Amino acid sequence: LPAFPTAAEEDDGADAELDTQAMVRAQNQKKKKSGGFQSMGLSYPVFKGIMKKGYKVPTPIQRKTIPAILRGRDVVAMARTGSGKTACFLIPMFERLKAPSQAGARALILSPTRELALQTLKFTKELGKFTGLKTALILGGDKMEDQFAALHENPDIIIATPGRLVHVAVEMKLKLHTVEYVVFDEADRLFEMGFAEQLQEIIARLPDCHQTVLFSATLPKLLVEFARAGLTEPMLIRLDVESKLSEQLKLAFFHVRGDDKPAVLLHLLRSVVKPQDQTVVFVATKHHTEYLKELLTAQGIRCTHIYSSLDQTARKINIAKFSQGKCPVLLVTDVAARGLDIPMLDNVINFSFPAKAKLFLHRVGRVARAGRSGTAYSLVAPDEMPYVFDLHLFLGCPLVLAGAQEMPAGEGWPYAGGVLGRVPQSLVDDEECLLLTDHECSLELRSLRRVADNAHKQYLRSRPGPSPESIKRAKDLDVSQLGMHPLFSARFEDTELERLKFVDSIKTYKSKATIFEINATSRTPASTVMRSKRRHDHALIEKFQRGQQEKRAAALKGQGLCPAPSKTQDGEGEQEDLQDVFSNVGGQKRKRGRGGEDGPRKKPQQPAQ
After folding, report:
1. What's domain 249-491's superfamily in CATH?
2. pLDDT confidence of 82, banded at 50, 70, 90?
């Protein structure tokens, strides 16, 4: 009679199966040419899902990160938005889990927002189509009963937001002791949005031996401290750190008054942006999204909007409208937009300029992805000018003024660092007339504008302040010398340009004489006093005017607008801290004899300057 296999025979069978899988991977890696997913030695279901998705060649961050994660290392990866970070942690996860199991959840993916979690779920189902792994989605705003039922089915993967996962874990007394693979997606935002306490609660429920992977666009000090305490000999992989923006991204900065922003936005959407392009407009508050949605709809521009407190069902409907092209314009706030994955996005418009340089990178990083070109337009009010200087300080490139400087790279716009210019007043006036008519005919529009104005005042109170040095540079900038932005000047004929320049010169004209000196031959006491005062202060006036001329000359030469960037900006971790925390720093250019990913570090020939 056949007997049950003994424990020794079972171990031999398991070892034989592992040896067979290793041989298959080695043979697959040997046959295929290096540089692609074939060379990573992936199992057939995972590789088939990658090919079905249409991926042929891994991106630089995938080429560096996936092998390190497959070796079981704790990894902290930094790369520009849109570089394929999601596949970096999904492919090793599928390879590690291999097949469904009834033991419980073995992988946990934490996302800062619901939208990012939904995008990750969609990508997980597409990429892991042939693995048979089950996934549970735990999000705030959905029914908890459904989430309880999903967890009772023993999913292999849990994709969740921290707040709701902690709530569900407490209610169900969930221990998560079977989890062996943990991902912190957009880790910088997880900590910036105040999830540190929830993250510590989740980590306390995890087993001691598990692999942790962090993906982040930036590396704040708080994240470095977390890596120091919670990761085992983590490896830091940094790509595209020096070039923070995509080479395919064009930047344009428009200096406008705050009250003229709706008119300029309307002109951009109507005359500059192509009708078939998908455009995301970032605003300061949810009240601005409601006001601008009503305003654009009244002007015949199809648009939709989302914000963090919007009903979950309405959010899904509005995102679907935009993704499917039914509405080419999406109005969003920063919190609601985090994690939106729209691969065919063409333009980003900063209606409200971000107060932090990293926030600007997160916004504009949604365009010019995967080799596509894109444009980021920014409407800059006078009180937002210091933030523009902060941004260029962070990027390490000078701010170019339209009409005052020659473009450092190529001729005209687009210049890599963006050009700051004015919008022709005639265009603003034309759009203002239409908007004024709409407001006069609509009580709802007037009410929404009043609410948006009040919300903007509250936003200004809570907005982080710029650096003192940038405030000083913004004050020293002579806006009257600012020319028309090349984007608009290219649309006018020479005669029209001359007319606009003449109108601008009238608008900026300021008489040197006071009202008491209009009649030069007058002998009134007031005119006599003013003439004597001018004679007395003549030397001081001459000195001040010479200083103004020197500043304008410096602007023409491109000097003084943006100093050299410092080593650490916006709370970035110090280089010494990184070397102390991370056992290996990979992905950077070789400097001072540093080896590759696994290579030994050579001793520097000379001390760092």
Report:
1. P-loop containing nucleotide triphosphate hydrolases (3.40.50.300)
2. low
DSSP 269: I
Please give the Cα distance from 567 to 340 (Å, whole number): 31
3-state secondary structure of 310: coil
pLDDT one-digit tens code per residue, 308-347:
888 888 888 998 899 888 999 999 998 776 656 666 788 9
Under CATH, which number does the domain 28-238 receive?
3.40.50.300
Give the model's confidence band at 1: pLDDT under 50 very low, under 70 low, under 90 confident, else very high: very low
CA 445 distance to own-chain centroid:
31
Burial class (CB in 10 A: 0-12, 13-18, 19+), 425: middle
Paired sense of beta strands 235-238 and 75-78, if any:
parallel
Residue 48, number of CB atoms within 10 A of its CB: 14
DSSP summary character for residue 382: G
Q: What is the pLDDT of residues 163-188, one digit of tens each?
A: 999 999 999 888 889 999 999 998 88
Q: How many CA atoms lie within 13 A of 257 on its CB side?
A: 8
**347-350/303-306 β-pairing:** unpaired
Domains of the chain: which residue ranges? 28-238, 249-491
Q: What is the C-alpha separation between 88 and 59, in angstroms, rounded?
A: 9
Q: Are 229 and 193 in contact (CB under 8 A)?
A: no
- Does 562 score more than 50 pLDDT? no
Confidence of residue 560 (pLDDT cuts 50, 70, 90): very low
Maximal CA-CA distance, the chain: 132
User: Identical fold at 28-238 and 249-491?
Assistant: yes
Q: 456: which residues sit within 8 A by CB, 6+ positions away?
A: 284, 285, 288
Q: Are 213 and 182 in contact (CB under 8 A)?
A: yes
Least Cα distance to 346 among 256, 431, 272, 262 occurs for: 272
